[in-house]
Amino acid sequence: MKILGVRFKRGGKVYYFDPQELELKKGDHAIVETIRGLEYGEVVLDPKDVPEEELKFELKPVVRKAGPDDHLTHVENKEKEKNAFSICQEKIANHGLDMRLLHVEYTFDASKIIFYFIADGRVDFRELVKDLASVFRTRIELRQIGVRDEAKLLGGLGSCGRELCCSNWMGEFQPVSIKMAKDQDLSLNPTKISGICGRLMCCLNFEEEHYTHMRKILPNKGARLQYEGEDAQVHDVNYLTGKLQLKVHQTKEDVFDLVWVDYEELEQKKEAPRPKEERKEVKPKETAAPEQQKKEKPKDKPQGQKRKRRPRRKKSRVKK
Predict the structure, then answer these.
(1) DSSP code of 75?
(2) Is residue 286 exposed (0-12), middle (13-18) or buried (19+ Cβ within 10 Å)?
(3) 254, 258, 263, 265: CA torsion to nearest 10
(4) How far, in Å, CA of 163 to CA of 166, rounded?
(5) 300: pLDDT confidence band, cut at 50, 70 and 90?
(6) SS3 for 172?
(7) What would the mean pLDDT of 207-225 be, rounded to a whole number?
(8) Whole-angstrom Cα distance, residue 117 to residue 125?
């Protein structure tokens, strides 16, 4: 069965649909049917064949390839979202609700409007929904989101100076733990390992697999190695580059040098065969004469025979 990957907003999740007989490719826009109604999305994955056994649910079909009129409708909906945002802010202020509006989203057929907001606790917005429904004359949905979703919607720059991964290309959030920061030898200062959302940075998860793999291969700090024929001790380990800092002793006194070496090159030198000049000829051992050879051990007795016991020695009794 053919499937097609469609994304509805930048950095959003990729959803799969049945392209049927439509000729679509990556970069095209299409109108698809979703739970919320008709949606305008961008094709991000070319059609490909997938066995039906791997599909967990029935795919909805692509309605049509988006044309110029569909693109114009999409642009008009974006303009309507700006107007709906300002109206909703006024209604929130009138009702005195402790909530902050973040984003407004129209479906393609304008059958539903979704308002995204953030709040510290639960908010009773039933009266607000009634007011918004009377103004827009369509279905209204208010959705409360968390701080990570807020950063994904608003966007921004991370501590690396680049655009946030969650708002740029990440479709879904992956779990991140403090153990990942410890595995990567990072400072546990919250300001250094947290993103602008206040949670642990998502990029900790990107390199965790590499660090786990390198920790199994590279020796630990303090391990003893041979480097250029001399005893050396591992002083530091760079798991990202796979290099070791060795403490090499120069003399019998406590004088040493710190040298950075590549562990793979060190292992290749260790496993490389020695040149013929260094190889020593090993003479075969002379076999001893048959008389000098050790006598064969007697075979074990069969299990049926019992071993004879030695007679006990009688203790000599001394008369008092």
Answers:
(1) H
(2) exposed
(3) -100
(4) 9
(5) low
(6) coil
(7) 86
(8) 11
